[in-house]
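Curious: why these numbers?
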Amino acid sequence: ELITEHIKPIIEAKGLELIDLTFDSSKSVLTVFIDTPQQDVDLNACEEVSLAIDPVLDEIITSSASYTLNV
């Protein structure tokens, strides 16, 4: 919930919607699912969201363990 609270406004500011957020602890993979009602979500939108939320996630996820972010 903490992650959702912080990244949802960033995603919405880009005209997108946060659909879901999952974390696979066995692989250390955080996956963010986004969508938009106006058009298909393309690779550029995914890259924009990834670059925008990455610094926020680095502040929230303070463990020394690394993780992979998928958007």
